[in-house]
Design a protein that fits this description.
The complex is a heterodimer of chains A (328) and B (316). Chain A is mostly helical and 328 residues long. Chain A has one domain. Chain A has helices at residues 2-31, 38-56, 59-80, 90-112, 139-161, 163-173, 175-180, 185-207, 217-232, 237-265, 268-293, and strands at residues 128-130, 136-138. In chain A, α1 (2-31) packs antiparallel against α10. The longest helix of chain A is centred in the first third of the chain and has 30 residues, at 2-31. In chain A, 49% of the residues are buried. Mean pLDDT of chain A is 84; it is low at 315-328. Chain B is an all-alpha fold. Chain B has a single domain (3-313), classed as ABC transporter involved in vitamin B12 uptake, BtuC. Chain B contains 13 helices and two strands. A two-stranded antiparallel ribbon of chain B has the order 1-2. In chain B, α2 runs antiparallel to α9 (206-232). Mean pLDDT of chain B is 87; it is low at 305-316. Classes of the chains: A mainly alpha (328), B mainly alpha (316). At the A-B interface, α4, α9 and α11 of A face α5, α10 and α12 of B.
C-alpha cells in the first residue's frame, strides 16, 4: 500500500510544480523573457500567506490575501521593471532577474528575519482520511491535489476556450503577428506576468506548510521548473503539464525507491551513497534523454505534433514558420 | 611599446612585490583575498572564452569549479598528496564531464542552452550533496596542500609561495586565452557568435568548434577549482551552487564581455566590492543587487559604460 501513498505524493508535487512552471513557460514563450526571479515570487507567496494567516487568524483569508497580493505585486513588478527587459538579449535578462533575486532574498531577510517562518496546516485539514482499506493519507495533501487539478483545468479552459487564451496561444507561436492583429500586447503581457505570479505564489503557499518557509526556498523548485519547461517545450501549457507530471513522478519515485532497489543488488555501503545521488540525478537524466530525441522539448508550439495523424485536430504548422521566436 | 603593455608590466611587477609588502605589514589576510581574486579571475576568464567570444550563455560554469576541486580533495582523502597525480586527474575528470555536458547541451541554443547547462550543473551539485562518504552537505577538507616536490626552493604549501603559484598560472592562462582568441580557432568561434548559420554554410563544423571551446573553457575553470580547494583546503557543494554560476557571469559582464581582461577586472571589482560592502553591513547582497540592477538598467537605457562592448552584446 506504500506505493499508493508514494504515487499520491508524486502527484501532489507534480501539480504544484505545474502551477509554478505554467507562469514560467508562458513568460518564456510569449514575452521571450528568462525570469530567474520566478522562484522569488514563489517564496513571496509563502511568506505573504504565512503573514496574512498569522495576522487574520484564518487560513482562507491568509491564502486569498496572499493571492491578491501576488497578483498586484506581479503587475507592479512587470510595469516598473520587467517590461523594460523584453527587448533585451537573454544575458541582460538573466543579470537583471539575478539582481532581483539578491534584492528579494535580502529584503525578505530584513523584513521577516533569518529564522524560518511558522505556517501550519489549517486545523480542518490537519487529520488524515482513509482512501483504500486501511491506508490513510494526509487530508491537506489531498486538498492540494484537488486544488491543483481544479486550477490546472481552469487554466486549460482559459487557454483553449477563451479569447485571452487564444491571444496567449497565438503569442506563444508568433508574437509579432499578434501585435499586428491589434491585440493590446502591453496589457496582455502585464496580465500574463501577474497570472504567473499568482500561480507561483499559490504553489508556494500550498507547499509551504509541508516544507519550511525560508529564504531561498524558491530556488530549488526554480531549477526543477526549468527542467519542466525545457522538457515540455517553451511556451506550451499542455507540455508543461505533461512534463511536470513526468518530472514530479520521476523525482518522488526515484527518491522513494531507487536507494532500496540499489540496496538489493549492491553492497550496502555503496548503495547508501549511490542511491540518493542517482535519485537526485534521475530528473536530469530524463531531460537529457528527451532532448536527445527532441531538442526543442515535447510540445514546442509550432513543432510537428507528437500525436499520430488521425488524432490531430488541426493541421500541423511547419516548424520554421515562427519568425516571432527570437533565438539568441 | 604601447601603453597597454606597459600597464600590464607595471601591474605584474606590483603583484610580484605586493606579498612582501603585505607580509612585512602583517596583513596576511589581504594576501588570501588577493589569491582568491586571482582564482576567480581565472574562472571568469574561462567563462569569458565561451560567453564573450563564443556567445554561449552557459549558466552552469561553477560545476567545473566544483568538480576540479572535489577531484583533488577526494584524491587527498585517499592518500594522493602529490599534485603531479591529483591535478591532471582533476583536469581530466573536468574535461570528460564537460565533453558529456557540452555534447548534450550544445544540441540546443539560446534559452534552452542556458536552462540545460543550469540544470545539469545543479544535478552535479545535488550529487555531491548526497555523497555522504565525501562529506555531503558539510563539505570535505584537506589536511594540507598538495605537494609538487619542489617545496625546498618554492614553498607552495605556504601562503606566499601559493600566491606566486596562482599568479604564475593566471598569467599563463591569460596568455593562452589571448593566443587562442587570436588564432584561427578563436576567429571561427567569434564568427559563430556573430552568425552561426553563416559559419555553418561556409562549411565549418560549428558544433565541433563550440564543443571544443566549451571543453577548453571547462578545463581552465577546473584549474581554478583545483586552486580554490588548495587555497582553502576545504570544499563544499556550495562552490557549485547555481548562484555561483550567476556570480561568475556577473564578474565577466562587469569586467567587459568579450574583452581580454574581463575576468581580471571583473573579479577585482566584484570581490573587492563584496569585501568592502561586507565590512559595512551584513546585508551586502542588497546593495550589490541594487547596483547590478542599476547597471543593467543603465545599459537598457542606452548609456555606454566605460568598459562596455555594447555592439557585441546584441548577438549574445
Amino acid at each position: 500500500m506504500l506505493w499508493i501513498e508514494q504515487l499520491l505524493n508524486g502527484l501532489q508535487y507534480s501539480l504544484m510544480l505545474f502551477l509554478f512552471a505554467a507562469g514560467l513557460t508562458l513568460v518564456f514563450g510569449i514575452m521571450n523573457l528568462v525570469n530567474l526571479a520566478h522562484g522569488s515570487l514563489y517564496m513571496l507567496g509563502a511568506y505573504s500567506a504565512a503573514t496574512v494567516t498569522a495576522l487574520s487568524g484564518s487560513y482562507a483569508i491568509g491564502l486569498l490575501g496572499a493571492l491578491v497580493f501576488m497578483g498586484l505585486f506581479g503587475a507592479l513588478l512587470e510595469i516598473v521593471l520587467i517590461r523594460r527587459l523584453y527587448r533585451q538579449d537573454h544575458l541582460t535578462q538573466v543579470l537583471a532577474t539575478f539582481a532581483l533575486i539578491l534584492i528579494f532574498n535580502e529584503s525578505v531577510r530584513i523584513v521577516w528575519g533569518v529564522q524560518p517562518l511558522r505556517y501550519d496546516i489549517p486545523a480542518a485539514l490537519s487529520g488524515s482520511v482513509s482512501i483504500v482499506g486501511d491506508l490513510r493519507y494526509s487530508a491537506y495533501r489531498l486538498a492540494t491535489i484537488a486544488a491543483g487539478v481544479v486550477v490546472a483545468l481552469l487554466l486549460y479552459w482559459m487557454v483553449s476556450r477563451t479569447r485571452v487564451g487564444m491571444w496567449v496561444r497565438a503569442g506563444a507561436s508568433n508574437r509579432e503577428m499578434v501585435q499586428m492583429m491589434g491585440v493590446n500586447v502591453r496589457r496582455l503581457f502585464t496580465a500574463i506576468f501577474s497570472l504567473g505570479a499568482v500561480l507561483s505564489g499559490l504553489a508556494g503557499a500550498a507547499l509551504a506548510p509541508l516544507m519550511s518557509v525560508q529564504v531561498g526556498m524558491g530556488e530549488e523548485v526554480l531549477i526543477l521548473a526549468f527542467v519542466v519547461v525545457v522538457v515540455g517545450g517553451v511556451g506550451s501549457i499542455r507540455g508543461a503539464f505533461i512534463a511536470a507530471l513526468l518530472v514530479g513522478m520521476v523525482d518522488s519515485m526515484g527518491r522513494a525507491w531507487l536507494p532500496g532497489l540499489l540496496g538489493a543488488v549492491l553492497p550496502a555501503h555503496i548503495a547508501s551513497d549511490l542511491g540518493p545521488a542517482l535519485a537526485s540525478m534521475s530528473v536530469y537524466l530524463l531531460m537529457a534523454v528527451v532532448l536527445m530525441v527532441r531538442p526543442m522539448g515535447l510540445f514546442f508550439p509550432g513543432a510537428p505534433s507528437l500525436l499520430p495523424k488521425w488524432l490531430r485536430r488541426h493541421p500541423p504548422m511547419a516548424a520554421n514558420a515562427a519568425p516571432g521566436r527570437a533565438s539568441a | 611599446m604601447n601603453r597597454g603593455l606597459i600597464a600590464v608590466i607595471v601591474a605584474g611587477l606590483g603583484l610580484l612585490v605586493l606579498p612582501m609588502v603585505l607580509v612585512s605589514m602583517g596583513q596576511g589576510f589581504y594576501l588570501g583575498l588577493l589569491t582568491r581574486i586571482m582564482i576567480y579571475a581565472l574562472a571568469a576568464t574561462s567563462l569569458n572564452l565561451i560567453l564573450g567570444y563564443g556567445g554561449m550563455v552557459s549558466f552552469g560554469h561553477a560545476a567545473f569549479l566544483g568538480i576540479g576541486g572535489y577531484a583533488v580533495a577526494i584524491a587527498a582523502q585517499h592518500g594522493i598528496g602529490t599534485a603531479w597525480v591529483a591535478w591532471p586527474m582533476a583536469l581530466g575528470a573536468v574535461a570528460l564531464f564537460a565533453t558529456v555536458i557540452g555534447a548534450i547541451s550544445l544540441r540546443t541554443q539560446g534559452v534552452h542552452f542556458l536552462m540545460i547547462t543550469l540544470a545539469l550543473a545543479q544535478m552535479v551539485y545535488y550529487v555531491f550533496v548526497s555523497l555522504r562518504g565525501y562529506g555531503g552537505d558539510d563539505g570535505l577538507s584537506m589536511s594540507r596542500r598538495s605537494s609538487f616536490g619542489w617545496e625546498a626552493w618554492w614553498p607552495t604549501r605556504g601562503d606566499t609561495g601559493f600566491y606566486y603559484l596562482v599568479l604564475a598560472l593566471l598569467a599563463l592562462a591569460l596568455l593562452c586565452a589571448h593566443r587562442l582568441v587570436r588564432s584561427h580557432f578563436g576567429r571561427v568561434l567569434i564568427g559563430v557568435r556573430e552568425n552561426e548559420a553563416r559559419m555553418s554554410t561556409i562549411g565549418y563544423p560549428v558544433y565541433r568548434y563550440k564543443l571544443a571551446a566549451f571543453v577548453i573553457a571547462a578545463v581552465l575553470c577546473g584549474l581554478a577549482g583545483v586552486l580554490n580547494v588548495e587555497l582553502n583546503r576545504f570544499i563544499s557543494p556550495s562552490v557549485m551552487h547555481w548562484s555561483q554560476s550567476g556570480m561568475l557571469m556577473v564578474i565577466v559582464i562587469v569586467g567587459g564581455l568579450g574583452r581580454p581582461w574581463a575576468g581580471v577586472v571583473g573579479a577585482t571589482v566584484f570581490l573587492g566590492l563584496e569585501e568592502v560592502l561586507s565590512h559595512y553591513t551584513e546585508r551586502w547582497q542588497l546593495p550589490l543587487g541594487l547596483l547590478l540592477l542599476a547597471l543593467v538598467l543603465a545599459r537598457v537605457a542606452g548609456w555606454r559604460l566605460p568598459r562596455d562592448t555594447g555592439k557585441s552584446l546584441q548577438h549574445v
